[in-house]
Structure formats: C-alpha cells, structure tokens
Amino acid sequence: MYKNGIDLLPENEIDKSDIVIFNTCTVKSPTENKITFMIDKFKSTDKKIVIAGCLSQSDPEFIKKRYPKSIILGVNAARDIIQSLQIDNSYIDLPIITPKHKQNKEMFEKDWLEKPLMGSTQWNNNLNIIQINEGCVNYCTFCATKFARGKLKSYQLESIISAIRNTNSSEVWLTSQDTACWGFDIKSSLPQLIEEINKINRKHWIRIGMGNPNNMIKILDKLIEVYKSKNIYKFLHVPIQSGSNNVLKHMKRGYTVEEYLTIINKFKKEFPKITISTDVICGYPTETEEDFNSTMKIIEQTKPSICNISRYWERKGTIAASLKQLNHSERKRRSTKLTQVMRKIQQDENKKWLGWEGEILLSEYGIKGGIQGRNLFYKAIIIHDTSLKLGSWINVRITGISDTYLIGEQVISK
Predict the structure, then answer these.
(1) What percent of the chain is predicted at pLDDT more than 70?
(2) Dist. CA 297–CA 290, nearest whole Å
(3) C-alpha distances out from residue 205 to 167, 169, 172, 200, Å
(4) What is the pTM of this model?
C-alpha cells in the first residue's frame, strides 16, 4: 500500500507483525510529519519499532525523546538491524551527524565516520535501482539532508559495473543525492562511469539520476558525448531551485542562472526531444516577488517536461531556518501559480508527441490502470492492454495525452 508518500504493507499485514521498521526521510517538514504520524500509531503497542534513515540520523535527540522504547539507527541501518533486535538496549549509539554541525565543512569531514554500503534495489523484475554515491559536496542553506548523509563518498566503478552486470533488468536507474559529483573523491567522473556502462553488451536502458548544476557544468561536454549511447535514456534531472541569482547565492547553490541555461541549452541542442526535469523552491526567505517572477520566466523559457515544485519549509538546524520567514499563504500562492504555468507547458509539449511511433520498454503498471512504458526519451506512455507483460519491448503509436503522460496503442509489424 502507498499512502501519503509512505510505502506501507497492507494494514492487516502490519497488525500481524511483531516488528515494524521505518526508513525515514527529512527532506521536507510535511514528509517528516507524515512519518511521525505513522510511527505514533505503533508506539503504544507491543510491537518492536525500528526507526532508521535520515530523520533519526539528523535529529536523534528528537527521535529518542518521542520514541524512547524504539530502536534507533542511522542512514546505513541495513547492516545493524538484525544485531539491534538481538540486544536489550533500545538505542544503538552509532556515529551520527547532528544539526550542531550546520554548514561547517570541517566538522562534517571530521565526524562522518560511517562507511556506507552500496545500495542496489530490485524494484521489480524489470527495474534495478543502484546507488552510486553517498552524500554530496554542496552546503546549501536550506538542506537538512546533509546532516544525515554527510560528505561525498563515491562507490568504486568496478562495484557499480558488477551490480549492473549481475542484474537481468531491462531498466537500471543510477541514483544518489547528486550523481554529477560521482567520482570527484576517487579521481574519476560520471562520464567515465557511463563510458564503462556503455561497454556492457546487453539491451537495457539506463536512467541517470539528479545532478546539481555546479557539478554538472564541470563535466558537461564529456557528459553530453556519453549520453549519445543508445542505452542511455535521454533524460536530464537538473534542479534550478530559483531563477534569481540573488536567491541562488544566498542558498549557497554554487552556480548561476546562466550556467544552468548553458547546461539545458547544450543538451537540448544535441537531443531536441530530451525530457528535462527540474526542481524549484517557492518562498525561500529572501525570495522577493521579483525573484519569483524570474523563476517563472526561466521555467517558461526552458519548458521542462517535469518540475518538482516545493513550498519552502524550515528545516531545524539550517541557516535558512534562522531567517525571517515568508508567511505560508504567500509560499502557497507562489507554488500554485508556478504549478498552473507548468500544467500549460506540459500540455503544450505533450501535444507535440501525438502521432509519434517507436519502441518503448514496458516498465510498470499504471496507477490508473493499464501498463506504463517509456521510450528512449523517457516519456511515460500508458497502454490499455492487459495482455502485455512488464519487461517487454514493443512498438507503439501515440494517440492521446494528459498533463503528465502520453497514451498509446501497440503497433504490430506486418
């Protein structure tokens, strides 16, 4: 069951369980509230509760006080869960980064002691998700995830290639907090990793996850070159966050609007049909109406296929949380206005795909029925044919659109 952004077993299965494990997130206040709401349902029961992930790593004192009978682990909890269930102590004192570190680079590098394990998740028989690095090199003023994930640790190229070779999945996602900085700490780079992936002689499609502009600009030309592979989704997730250089500077994002545009324009020139995904924060404390309008103009200019729009939320211990905040109604107004602009952009862009024919990979079942596939440009296409199977490669024709996906029908070759 999937509810309010949280993956859950069916409630009757949870009722039967003796142990409930929560892998938490701290990226936004609403997400944190949903998680604690769910944990609250179980804290007065006889079930053993394990709380792991970013929330317990970034704010362990809060978790210990609110859930004193729980087992509390950090972000690399997988290797410790079994051991923690076998001992009497209710709190496992792992080396944890707390908000006292704030944006202090030296303290991060001194205190980040845990060695993360490379994550590889078989999402379904067709999709494998592989984490390529942990942490990042940025120190953004609004981000609490840094408290939990720490500085950059790239997994070795050989380990990643081995993980890809050992899966039979037709689709592989490379993911991390920032894929663009993979290799910076081990004298390598994302283009070098993709070059090695492209040598794997198997039909599969690879999706490269989110990369921050300040790091992507350093590898831009080489990255575009390796993207030409027939195995790489023409999909680019680059967060702008704000269209104002003043706001970006205050956020300590490390890039300018002009650099962001350079990345987008170069990719679009090489791959005109590419799917561009970006992220925007509305209502950052220093964002003026003029700043917000600049963000609107950038979105209208670049026309991303996907825009993850977030209202700014104060995160405990961050620099931005100490500033005078915009009221919530203004944050909501701005995010609503940008959402309306994005809906129009998506409709206009999706219309351009009507009549397109080509190959897609069937990757998952549609939320509203049917089966979903994607073409090489990462366009989501729903096919209403229950006889089709996940993992199949089929040819389709686009016959309809919605705001967020295309509608197609299978084309049978004569």
Answers:
(1) 81
(2) 11
(3) 13, 9, 6, 11
(4) 0.80
Spatial separation of the C-alpha atoms in residues 396 and 372, rounded to whole Å: 12
Q: Are 397 and 358 in contact (CB under 8 A)?
A: no
Distance of CA 236 to the CA centre of its chain: 12
CA 75 to CA 273: how far, in whole Å?
37
Terminal-to-terminal C-alpha distance of the chain: 41
Once rounded to an integer, what is the mean pLDDT over residues 38-44? Answer: 79
Nearest Cα residue to 181 out of 144, 229, 149 = 149
Write out pLDDT tens, residues 345-379: 999 999 999 999 999 999 888 777 889 999 999 99
Q: What are phi and psi of 36, to 5 degrees?
A: -65, -30
Question: Domains in the chain, start-ordered, CATH in brackets?
Answer: 2-96 (3.40.50), 105-351 (3.80.30.20), 357-410 (2.40.50.140)
- Confidence category of residue 108, pLDDT binned at 50, 70, 90: very low
